[in-house]
Amino acid sequence: MTTTTRITPQRASGRLPVALIGAGLVAVSLIALAVALVAAGGAYEAPPPGISDSGPLVVWGTAILRVLTDLAAIATIGWLLCAAFLDPAGRGGVVSRIGRVDLKRAAIAAFVWAGLAWLQMLFTLADVLGVRLLQALDPSVFTTYVNEIPITRALLAMTVLAAVVCVASVATSTTGASAAWVLIAVVAASLPALAGHGAGQGDHALALTAGVAHVASATIWIGGLFALAVHAARRDLPLQHAAERFSSIALVAFVLLAVSGLANGYTRLETPDQVFTTGYGQLLLVKATLLVGLGALAWVMRTRVISTLGRASRAAVFARIAAIELTVMVVSVALGVALAMTAPPRVDIQFDSLGESLLGFAYPPPPTASGLAFGFHLDPLFLIGSLVAASLYCIGYARLRARGDKWPIGRLISWLLGIGVVIWCTNAGISSYAQVSVGLHMLQHMTITMLAPILLVLGAPATLALRALRPSHGNDRGPREWLTWLLHSWITRILTNPVYVFVVYVLGLYGLYLTPAFGWLMGSHVGHIIMQMHFIISGYLFYWVLIGIDPRPKPLAYWGRMLLLLLALAVHGIFAVILMMGSAPLAVEWYGIVRPPWVTDPLQDSLYGGQVAWGLSEIPTLMVMIVIAIQWSKSDDREATRLDRKADRDGDSELVAYNERLAKLAERDSSG
């Protein structure tokens, strides 16, 4: 005889303590903020006479609103995370009753988040302009400057995205949509990090990447723990399963938080001794100490508490430890805000020219084969992302081999070669040269958008993942179920539509290079990353449709694949001819400023880019044509084998029926 333990919601007894805990966490964070700002020298100080002053209300109000905005974002992400991944799911990916409640909580938190982000934007505008709050609210001042200052522009975008998440959470009824809103919310929370201290440092690529990673990992970890703590206090959720799932998410977030924190410290401190000799460094040290303590608490929770949550009495233990963790976490959030509002000790690097200042590094020497191939220019996002992708593939390969399953070694080699090409394009010498020369940029572009995706697609990563991942039980979606859902979703149907991939991959060249979009994207590190991501993703989708081994909703017939490839080659050739016949340099608003001495003729440099686009398109096209021909031939062989086996089973009934039909026709003709 089996018994089922039913968790009865305790709403009446749970509301007041949860509300008091929330208010206490906010109070602790504000106290920690005040102490940190005073200690680090970021508190308000009256400027010398004659210098405009926004006043203590604006300075302190900006800091307080930033903390409150961060906490609202954390709560929103936490509730969405529960609805998408941690709460029990209904059939067909529909959220359960508990998930529906969490989505409503997320909507309320997002509404508060949007309002606080709007207020923070107003206070920040006044602080940056050095004017009183009422002056910043003047329509002429607001409309003139709010979209010109990076941080206020980021806060404006955050406000809009938070409002979208608020409305969408009310209308959402599936875990798939909830997962999408988690992603949007994390992006919105990370936007201010793109306008922080890192933009002015020589290592701004590392600083911006680390800043975004730090915010994203912190909001997911703190938000998920907050939502689980509330559920533990109210006892309205099967806690053990949810906590086990969140434990894996928290582990990844902790590692990412630690690594990105180290990178942030490196980019903002001039020398190691500044950790102890400056207020900024001391705050970093305190924050690092708190992170170590959080890691210890999380380890206790993971090893000693989560496995015992099947007993209802242990939920209170989980809630108490989670409350301690959350207290330390909100103090860390306050310290992070204080650090963001305090000038770091590292002095901005002074370069010899405006172009080098915009680049963030000195002009590279005249290009050589060894410099292009073996030079190094760090792009941490693509380097770390590529290494993670390679590691996950190798883990899946090893898991299949360990249980005796086979996986073609050629696919493993193809995937690793594709990863190697991506790393070379984004971190080798070509990466720095591509930012100052149109011709060398086109060399990078053609390689990363044509060669790398072909190799990656032939690696069949989705098929490997489907075979290596273990299925989940019940209605809940694990990694394998999420991947299956994605491969068969309407999103993938659109992304693998031949018309869509042709427009994005081929015609997108015209929209990028023959409009001001090229120079605008090159003008910022974020824009440069977006452009490179577009190259990789659009190329992957195109070659997935043409030669992909992974499953997709509607595979294209082989004759259609060959036709699409030839059409793309023709349109790409026309694009290259347009570049070679150009009478003006490309993206002069960027490449005309970041122009090293060895680029003596910008127009000739652009024409060289057209020649590269023409020449490098033929080799990948030939590779793909050969692969399609081989796949087509094998498909015909498999179809012939299938028909032979069917004929052996049924005595070739189709041929017999066909001959009988011919005989009847002949008999009818003769009788007529």
From TrEMBL:
Main location: membrane
Membrane topology summary: Multi-pass membrane protein
Sorted UniProt keywords: Cell membrane, Membrane, Transmembrane, Transmembrane helix
Biological process according to GO: copper ion transport
One Gene Ontology CC term in the entry: plasma membrane
Transmembrane spans: 20-44, 64-86, 107-131, 151-172, 179-199, 205-228, 249-267, 279-300, 321-343, 381-400, 412-434, 446-469, 490-513, 525-546, 558-581, 612-632
Chain ranges of the Copper resistance protein D domain: 242-339
UniProt key word Lipoprotein: no
Localization annotation: Cell membrane
Protein name: Unannotated protein
